[in-house]
What we know:
Layout: H1 11-14, H2 31-39, E1 51-52, E2 55-56, E3 60-62, E4 78-80, H3 87-94
Antiparallel strand pairs: 1-2, 3-4
Amino acid sequence: MLTTDLAAPVTFVLRRLADVRVQQYWDPNHLVADQMARDARAPQPVQDCCQRGGHLWDLAAVYPRGAVWSDRMPTAVVFNGPVVDVTTAIAAAMR
């Protein structure tokens, strides 16, 4: 995500992760990003990037099969980015 990202991503960008299990969010008010940061906890990996202005940016999170979403997001098995740099980890976690 760039500071120049002023609108939701176009189809070309969304196609980079073309899998029915993938959900991508345009989060201009950082609601999902901030919730992800608040809910992060062990044994989830700690991201080594992707914070700008106190918000998570361009981060991929992969949750295990059967993860239950409740009042907190479940712990992720992949939680890092930028997305373009972690596509191998995403693919491996989704196998």
